Amino acid sequence: MNHHIWDAYSKSYLNIQKNPASFQLSLMNMLRFNEAEEILDAGCAGGQLHQYILQQRKNTCKLTACDFSLQMVKVAATRMLKFLNNPLSGEIMEISPLEIENVDLNCPLLEQNNYKIFQGDVQSLTQLNNNQFDIYISNMVIHLVENKNQAIQEAFRVLKPGGKIGIVIPVASGNLLMATMTKCFMQCGLIQNMPFKPTDIETREEMISFIKKYGFTDILCWNQTIPFDLYDIDNNYIFPQFKEILEKAPQEQVDQFYAFFKEEVQNRLNQNLPFTVEGLCLIAKKPL
Ligand SMILES: C[S@@+](CC[C@H](N)C(=O)[O-])C[C@H]1O[C@@H](n2cnc3c(N)ncnc32)[C@H](O)[C@@H]1O
């Protein structure tokens, strides 16, 4: 998947990102981020938790974030500036397209608050030094990356000895929302197969042996399921891979998809169940 899909998706991320952010909260807790001096959020998208991190971190702690989608980076920076200019305002999501377009990623206010954000690919973080970070977090990103080996090698390189990595990837079989959307797409003939390759890591054992290869120790790995607050079929909840297909499809098929999907959502709600996504979460240490 290239960054253009995520650029186009960045507006939706103002709303949707609060769901997978629950995984990130668990990671932060398990990694004890409040003890860190430098944190990297790799593949940060709209930076949903950045304000929270700023409020909870040690005063001296620096937060660096990157994403390969420039639009995502701009959303995160705009959101952060909005927050820094008015930390007491409860609602910081209402930002206009113009504010996002004109945001200055090098604005001094960001630096004064020990916050740095840039457009960067997690497979090659040339902007970052060796042994720089106490914590490397990457929530729901590594499964999307072309060369996972390179991404984890980069994580290892930028972490200090004793530094910790925290990653989450979705479990394909436990991603109910994705599975339901796929089913509806197939029902109305929009696709014959999954529009993308699911990751080859599905179990704790696979995840642990994947990360062990790079020299990480003190590994903890667990499955975690989170609910999606999906109560209607707002466009915001269409995954980017599917959005692209819908945009090119005849209106009749699009309407059919929405009708099928609406029914699936209603069936789920009738059982008093939310849609859920299951993640494989892992934390580990770079040896001293
Ligand atoms: C599912 S979102 C997860 C974002 C965020 N970490 C969260 O917790 O919500 C995936 C993000 O990864 C970014 N991404 C995908 N591949 C990347 C890569 N190779 N380098 C940097 N960012 C990447 C996308 O642009 C998108 O913003």
From TrEMBL:
InterPro entries assigned to the protein according to its UniProt record, in alphabetical order: Methyltransf_11, Methyltransf_Superfamily
Domain (Methyltransferase type) spans: 40-165
Pfam families according to UniProt? Methyltransf_11
> What is the name attached to this protein's record?
Methyltransferase type 11 domain-containing protein
GO MF terms, alphabetically ordered = S-adenosylmethionine-dependent methyltransferase activity
